[in-house]
Amino acid sequence: MTPSITPPRRRRWVSTVAVAVAAALTVTLTGPFGVGTEAEAAQKPTRCDEKWLGRKYDAPVAGSGIKGKNQPYSVSPENEWGDYFYDNPNHAFDGLAAPTPEKQKLAGNTKADINKWKARYEKTGNIKYRVLEIYARYGRQLKSGNRIRDFSRWLDVRLIGNEANRTKGDGFERKIVRDFKLVGPDWICQKTVRVRDPKTGKLVNRTYDAYNAKTKELVEFKSNGKHEADQFRRDKEVMRKPGYRDHRLRLITGEKTTRNTVNQYGKLNKELENERGKTNQVTVREQRNNGLARWRPNQYTRFDKIMNPDPSRVGTKGPINDVARRSGRTPERARQLQRLYNGANSGGAFGRGPGGIDFTTLELQYVGNPQRGKGIDYSFRADYVPDPDVDPGYGGAEKLQLASDAFFTWLALTPDKFWVNLNPDQPDTIMDSTFASTDAGRVLLEADLAMKYDFAEAINPEKREEAQLYWDTAPRRDGIPCFPTVRFWIEPKPAKVREQNGGIYILDAPLRVDAEWLETDWQAPGARECDLTEPEKRLSEESVRRWIMPEVEKRVNNNPEYADLRRVYASRVAAEWVRQQDAKKATDFREIINSNDVSRWPLRGENVDWSKHEVWQRYMETLREGIEWFELEYGGKVYNQGAGGVDFSQAPKRNVTKVEFDTQHPRTAETTKTSQRTETAYRNTETAFLGGTSAGNIDNGDPDPDPEPEPSPTPPPSDPPTSSPSNPPTQPSAPGGGGADGGDTPAPPDQAGGDLPQTGANAAIRWLAAAGAGLLAVGVGLTWWLRRRKTASEG
């Protein structure tokens, strides 16, 4: 029987505690003490099994070796994805306030001061001495070349980040050694090669995380998805150094590998293939694993008000809070911060950096079961940016705040207020005044106005062939096509959701744009209107739906200018579900729901003075002056205008079955759960999941008491999956469900499961019409006019 590669349990426990204590009491002052530095290069190479698994193996075990070495770039299959844990007790101090001048004077700013406070903390365990030690470290760096004057930024980059660089890199290295079974006397960790740096011309050390003299492989582990430029420069020299020209270079990443890293290593591989006449000399293996930090909150831990129902409580915390806070508010600031964090990211503490997320795509994708006294769990999704070092994401704090504020706005206000209306006949019914005091309301009205411009382009035959088809089939007067006097509006399509494990996953939340004929009294000066018969009106209405509305709807669901609208609608779906749960049993949201008090979620930042009347004035200006001009073959120059509305009074949903959830959205449940502790990529996509939870729900423990796998016996059978089935059978998530597998019985499209209002795309207007004259303003959708006028030359 091949020996187990599980280290003795007692020895492993002692090792873990030792690492945690050392990490808690030491802080690097001027940068991470990581792989590749000359100081660490002096360390004696050790066997990987002894270093990371706590024991020696006499020989390699079955299945041992680097994976993906037969392809220049490869990604691990999903059944090999997993988690690893690392200790970062400094994270608990991320809310520590900057020192006052008196505190800084007391703390000091010398190495002796640091050692003094550290010794007192070790002796007494009194956290006040730990705080003074941190202040002393901050003061010392102010005198050095690493001057980060923003104390909170210094805490994040240097105190927390440097510790994570050390312990996260170690955690990832241990995970790969275990998973790849890099055991036996041939696998050495910390192999140093002396080489001349091509940039400086100086002799330097290049230290590799793992080395096998027998297979002639040099291996670098990166818990994030990016390489370091200085190490890569030296790699190119090493691979052409006498004695190493027959060696191969392997890069193992733990997260989505950046395009630049794949390209750089791919280019070097092609060069060496041509020089050596052998394939796969340099390979990149993306071995997806999530690093989960372990730390315990204290009185200096920062908690946020994001997704926090009770302002009297400490708040919420999670990766999305941290990542959003790190991002810059502007593109230029984002580039500055990306450079700053990159300089302190050798161990992968910050992944792709603060600019790695495209925050314009940020949307709420999950909320957990809201229970009284426990707040709520939550998770967001967002796309990664292709190259964060060149074009980083920014504005994370503002986008996260908007999604959270909208969530509470939808809870606090009664649904009859969730509409906006731009109509020249109704300047006094633009939107509810309370709704207008929120950013959610602002977003809806601005989206309504934006749709006017998109309609103007969509009906321009010089820009779209389909628009020409509308004009060719439109009713005419005096040989000139008549513009459609129709209203059109944005409303929700049924959202695809999955209620499971006590929470709701928002899988898709599309929006619909619809149109119907509408008469108005207001006319633009000089406008020439068509007096159409009822059949002609219906013909015009259907033609708009066929040739114009699909383009406008596509833009609403995909274009960047509607990103905020999509963001607040995802929050609307989540809020409606929370309403349902609270109706069954009181939650922390009970006092908020239907209170019509939105004072905690007002207009913010640059929009604090926003006015619905100013938007209406802009809208009227477009009616008077026009948006698009174009020539029609029928003669005459035309331009078009509009009026409109957005109606989120309903939030229809379709609860997908368990089978559909598992097959079309695999690993969503697992990835969402992990996202509450760390940023994680969803499957093989460019989408990240980032979550958080209320303070009382934080779990920083290791759920796997013995994660070491047993090696395959010789001869090895088929490898078993490394994780249990992704979704065990659950109880029906909605009344009336209950297939044989414990999932949901599919319902007809118009009645598909769940308790949210089943309005669909058409029922919303019927509901509004039935509400009577008192709610007329709610039903007024979007109206567009075309005015024709002849140019001066046409007389």
| Distance, first to last CA | 99 Å
Rg, please? 31 Å
Structural class: alpha+beta
Poorly predicted spans: 6-42, 639-643, 703-795
Helix percentage: 25-40%
Keywords: Cell wall, Membrane, Peptidoglycan-anchor, Secreted, Signal, Transmembrane, Transmembrane helix
Pfam family, one: Gram_pos_anchor
Region (Disordered): 304-331, 658-758
Signal peptide: 1-30
Keywords summarizing the entry:
795 residues; alpha+beta; eight-stranded mixed β-sheet; seven-stranded mixed β-sheet; globular; disordered C terminus
Can you put this structure into words, describing what you see?
Keywords: Cell wall, Membrane, Peptidoglycan-anchor, Secreted, Signal, Transmembrane, Transmembrane helix. It is a single chain. The chain is an alpha+beta fold and 795 residues long. Helices cover 35% and strands 18% of the residues. Strands 10, 11, 12, 17, 18, 22, 23 and 24 form an 8-stranded mixed β-sheet that branches. A 7-stranded mixed β-sheet has the order 1-4-5-6-7-8-2, sandwiched between helices. Strands 13, 16, 19, 20, 21 and 25 form a 6-stranded mixed β-sheet that branches. A hairpin with a 2-residue loop joins strand 17 (495-500) and strand 18 (503-508).
Q: Which secondary structure elements does this structure contain, and how are they paired or packed?
A:
Elements: H1 9-25, H2 38-41, E1 46-47, H3 48-53, E2 73-75, E3 82-87, H4 101-107, H5 111-124, H6 127-143, H7 151-179, E4 187-196, E5 203-212, E6 217-222, H8 229-238, E7 248-253, H9 259-276, E8 282-286, E9 289-294, E10 316-317, H10 319-326, H11 331-342, E11 357-367, E12 378-384, H12 396-412, E13 419-422, H13 439-458, H14 465-473, E14 476-477, E15 480-481, E16 486-492, E17 495-500, E18 503-508, E19 511-517, H15 534-547, H16 549-558, H17 563-584, H18 612-625, E20 628-631, E21 637-647, E22 653-655, H19 658-664, H20 668-675, E23 680-681, E24 687-694, H21 763-770, H22 776-779, E25 783-788
Helix pairs in contact: 4-6, 5-6, 10-12, 12-17, 13-16, 14-15
